[in-house]
């Protein structure tokens, strides 16, 4: 039995199926072009896990931030952002509001 012949009437009949297929392809295309940027942010004043938690909460509130890691000894916060650009001004305000001093950032687009 040839299953291709059985599916032809179903696929041809329905414009809804075509519209669905087109939307799935468009969604996959958007995922394929999504830009991921990994930020390494130097911060002064990170001393304990409680400090890290406060910063993590503030970064989590930004749409598109998917991963956060902190190295307390080095004073480096790493954030992975999807289709989000973090500006120096934005980061300076975020860390200042949390009680820390923002120093610099490095961004690597993947």
Mean pLDDT: 81
Sequence of secondary-structure elements: HHEHEEHE
CATH architecture of the largest domain: 2-Layer Sandwich
Please give the order of strands in the largest beta sheet.
2-3-1-4
* Main pleated-sheet profile: 4 strands, antiparallel
CA-to-CA gap between the ends?
A: 47 Å
Number of domains: 2
Q: How many DSSP helices? A: 4
Q: Helix fraction?
A: 40-55%
Number of strands: 4
Taking pLDDT < 50 over at least 5 consecutive residues as the criterion, the unreliable ranges are none
Remind me, CATH topology of the largest domain?
Alpha-Beta Plaits
CATH class type of the largest domain: Alpha Beta
Q: Would you mind describing this structure in some detail?
A:
- The chain is of the alpha+beta class.
- It folds into two domains: 3-32; 35-109, Alpha-Beta Plaits, CATH 3.30.70.
- Helices cover 47% and strands 29% of the residues.
- It contains four helices and four strands.
- A four-stranded antiparallel β-sheet has the order 2-3-1-4, covered by helices on one side.
- Strand 2 and strand 3 (76-82) form a beta hairpin.
- The mean pLDDT is 81.
